[in-house]
User: Fold these one by one.
Assistant:
Number 1:
Amino acid sequence: KLAEVYNLFFKQAVSLKLDNNQVTKDLQTASVPEDCIKILIDVLNSREDEIRRELTNDAEQISKAHLVDFDWKLHLALASDKIAYLREPLTILNLVVMNEDRTKKDLVFELSKKELDGLIKKMENVNEEFVRLMI
């Protein structure tokens, strides 16, 4: 169990790009003995590249599918079956995703302005996380 805890701690420290002082403070907060802290920091520093590769590999295992292409169109919905006069802008987003077996799949979404803004915000958050975890 203790090895699992340190493994998780090392992954967090690398993914958050903590420096030695921050790691030391965290270990002291967890009541780790001082002589062990130096050893753990040495281990972390010597294995940082290996841990970063493992984090990248873990992220890749979530899904082997990846975005190949995308297209978007703007439509103006003038009416619906419930409302005679609508004039609502809609974005048609077409994502082409390649699966692990090299087959392509089209994903088509019809998004209102609010939904599009939410999607863009989520994609910005994903990008920030990706940049943070990049090697």
Number 2:
Amino acid sequence: MLSIPDWVRGRTADTPKAALLSRSRFDRLREHDVIRTAEERGYLLSPSKSFVLEQCYGKSQKENREDAQKIYDIQIVHMSQAHLRNIGYIQSCTRLQVCILSNNYITRFDALAACTMLVKLDLH
């Protein structure tokens, strides 16, 4: 019979704990290698100021130079499946209320602490 904590971890009573730890370590190393290779080949992005403005306002870079201060006024960011590696300049959107960043490769979200007006954060 399985206890709830063992069932949640995907472990049965017959599975040795050391085997599960080594498997998870292998998986972590493999994931790290895949992400490093993707970064080296340019598959993963770090959103720059112009990228954020272009995604939110739909303008070209020439027009973004005129609207450089508008990054602070952005209230909604929807960048799911954008192959983002980190938060980048999204943290500069201090009036951000809705942030949808699902299906990306972001591992740390502490940079969003500057977005004090954030109401909804979607990361699934």
Number 3:
Amino acid sequence: GTLKKFMDGKGFGFIENSDGSGDVFVHFSQLTSGGSEDMVVGSEMTFDIEIDDRSGKTKACNVTITSAGDGDSGGGSYGGGSYGGGGKSYGGKSGGKGKGKDKYSPY
């Protein structure tokens, strides 16, 4: 299949199944090699499908990247920018930043 969407800060995305059966949920922890930084939109990958015990939904497992993607979703930023930044702002936005602004800002 082909990686169609990937959320850097959260570590999951969706693979478009090449047999046309729809999109499959994928988490980077299911990669047989590499990490979330290797999950680039457009990557070709092979995978098995299993049922997630908790959600009852299908998900990809034993995911192997067969060819790297071109990173439609902003090639340059995927490595440093949005990957690291995504993690930080994810925590910051929900906790510190939002609250801090209201508390200290007179406006």
